């Protein structure tokens, strides 16, 4: 290398290497402080695209889990209401059996009828008040069929859990119809105060059978809700596992490997110190020319 004054090539090399070491250190510091290997597109353009796609899947899966948990809560609310209605139906059955007994006095039957009226009103109130997020859970008629509620499990439109209307039939409908009718199938019921006392025993006999059928219907509906809840919970378990696996995959691409990055930082610090020392040495090299001029 010739001895020149205007261009200090060694200094330029040392300066370039110092700048490179400082840039690498800055990248390591950013990764270690943020916890992310990819902080901007230039760090890994392909990796950034992969992480964004995985993030979209993870976010939709997590929202799907929340949607399904809402569905579980809704089904539980409906089942709890049916359980209360079944308990009242059992009491009605007991009272009807008691009232149908020939040894029961007229006063006794009147008292029984009064309690049954209160229970039937309470069941109708349950059917009316049981709502979830403003949605009435017992609004379907016995004739209604098909999907009533669709729970979205992810951002894929077809990824859903559907709940049939059979599980949400109006539990109060059977009260004024099948559970309390006269022997002839007329409209009179124990809800009516117009029934002659002499007819109460006949109505009680009919109510025994109707109450049994009603309880069976409610239990069938409750079992269906239980099947819905099992389906939803199994789906939640599956999506939770999927979300965990996707998160692990994203971490492999996006997150900082601290063991590797701290080693890179240490290497950068040593290179920076070495380059700084060599730059100082290189800046002194032109002094050789002074000795030639003496």
Walk me through the structure:
- The chain has two domains: 49-253, f41 fragment of flagellin, N-terminal domain; 258-294.
- It contains seven helices and four strands, in the order αααββββαααα.
- The longest helix has 58 residues, at 197-254.
- The strands form two sheets. It has a two-stranded antiparallel ribbon with strand order 1-2.
- The chain starts with 8 loop residues before the first helix and ends with a helix.
- The protein is rod-shaped, with a radius of gyration of 40 Å.
- Strand 3 (147-152) and strand 4 form a beta hairpin.
- It has 294 residues and is mostly helical.
Secondary-structure topology with pairs:
Blueprint: H1 9-34, H2 45-99, H3 106-129, E1 131-132, E2 135-136, E3 147-152, E4 160-164, H4 173-176, H5 197-254, H6 258-284, H7 287-293
Antiparallel strand pairs: 1-2, 3-4
Mean pLDDT: 84
Enumerate how many helices there are, as a single number.
Answer: 7
CATH superfamily of the largest domain, please?
A: f41 fragment of flagellin, N-terminal domain
> What is the strand arrangement across the widest sheet?
1-2
* The level-1 CATH class of the largest domain: Mainly Alpha
As a percent range, the share of strand residues is 5-15%
Largest sheet: 2 strands, antiparallel
**What is the correct CATH architecture of the largest domain?**
Up-down Bundle
Question: How many domains would you count in the coordinates?
Answer: 2
Runs in which pLDDT lies below 50 for 5 or more consecutive residues are 175-193
The termini sit apart by 21 Å
CATH topology of the largest domain: f41 fragment of flagellin, N-terminal domain
What structural category arises from helix and sheet content?
mainly alpha
